[in-house]
Amino acid sequence: MAFWWPLIVLGVTYLICRCLLMLIPPNVPSIDVDASDVMDDGSQTKENSYIYIPRKGGVPQSDKVRCYEPATMKYLGHFPALTPDEVKEHVEQARKAQKIWGKSTFRQRRQFLRILLKYIIEHQELICEVSSRDTGKTMIDASLGEIMTTCEKITWLLAKGERWLKPEYRCTGRSMLHKRARVEFYPLGVIGAIVSWNYPFHNILNPILAAVFSGNGVVIKVSEHASWSGCFYLRIIRTALAAVGAPDNLVHVITGFAETGQALVSSVDKVIFVGSPGVGKMIMRNAAETLVPVTLELGGKDAFIVCEDVDVSHVANIAVRAALQSSGQNCAGAERFYVHKDIYSAFLAQIVKIVKSISVVRPATGWKYDMGAICMQGHAEKLQSLVNDALDKGAKIAVRGSFGNLGEDAVDQFFPPTVLTEVNHTMRIMQEEAFGPILPIMKFSSDEEAVNLANDSNYGLGCAVFSGNQRRAREIASQLHCGVAAINDFASTYMCQSLPFGGVKHSGFGRFAGVEGLRACCLVKSVVEDRWWPFVKTIIPPPLRYPVADNAFQFQESLVEALYGLNIWDRLHAVINVVKFLSDSNSANARNMRRHRYRTS
Fold first, then answer.
1. Does 80-299+517-526 match 302-458+462-496 in CATH topology?
2. Where do the TM regions start and end (predicted)?
3. Res 591: pLDDT
4. Residues annotated catalytic, as ranges
5. Which top CATH class is 80-299+517-526?
């Protein structure tokens, strides 16, 4: 016991010191970012506050990207649609800055993250308001999807990022026991990302954080539907980088349409794309011209499976949030609900009750509301066409929310939360990504049926499985063909930023987030060197030296068996043969040398 006491005292002392150090606030400077032009203080003149009405059938491409509030159609401004030459200039600027930043220390990179994190925490309302105005989401949805996810990623990088980018030593195997093997991680150069509009702050920060922390430059092409917010968020990032002495032009946000994105793909060292499968295929075709590696996150049609042994009220609340978060405009939103027949009626009743209580209000008209607007012009019409298709094929509307709080001057950018029953897989709503506030609910009778239904999709991003028996839920989830799975929860996998995020099938491939996503921004280099240099070196055995000996193949056979044979006695016998071959070779070499000396004398 006397031996353990000093160790216990040292351990307790260490823990106390760690706790005391946590009480000392870190020295993180504050940054000041000009936000005067993005604040809606009611002082705008008539010239810059008119209602913008895009043409039906989409906005025609031009040399300008026009921005407006989806909830009010109030005009926000315009940004240039960059030409291919202008895009290449941005990439070259980032490339020059990256050569400097690539030599920065992890301490400098962590300080950038701390400064950024401090600004985000102190300016949550500003960041959420800008996102809300540009995409139509509620302030709560913005906080959940923009602030929390980004802060979680930053804190993970602060705690673990350096560890996973340091050289990693690996096993050398039997034939290379005299070597050391490791994997080294170097910046790729310039990472290009083409991101979607649904969470403009996080979708920009997500690739930037991983790329910058791993020593890269970044050029982000923001969606034409969220360019206004994206250009403001760039100010925050650049100001935080400047505060740690990073070179100018390390990070860029560019605006434009398809031509702008195509030029970016052909100019960078890696592409990260978040968007639709159709555009993802175009990205792959363009990337193939220069063999640029790509990571594609192409959305999903996530299954939400509810077994009969759950707390119905508890799961119903999670289900509604999973479907209606940000008005259903989530890459990993729940879009197909499979409920066991024994609790179907009770579950549906709870869903109907919750949906009836949902309030829809325009952003900036109040804090206490549940749903905002649909971001993309014309998307509400697509959602209605999905509902109409389902109704034509036998589905029924169990409940549909109201717009009682919108007012008479509301624009056509809202879609009511809609619950559909008696759906089946012949309906488009069960096959196509809706990206809207629709809950189609279908019965199942057995776990096997639930698995078959969930896997009957072209998409494979995520899933959620609920059961009172956690082992049963894990068993069901293990059979689902998707990239992420939540057990008795929804989307919790994304909040665990140590985990990779991505899907299969039409949901894309490659991963961002987690160790895999961080290292995907790196040139991964395998390195082998002598363990005991210069005392032990690689020597070509005499039978294998050119010109090879007559018994070279027999020697190689014995060497292979000595290293990898399954039977220890066979391996020992092979070792004896190897020694014999080497001895014979040495004897032959000695005889040859004597003959050579005799002839020359």
1. no
2. 7-24
3. 57
4. 297
5. alpha beta
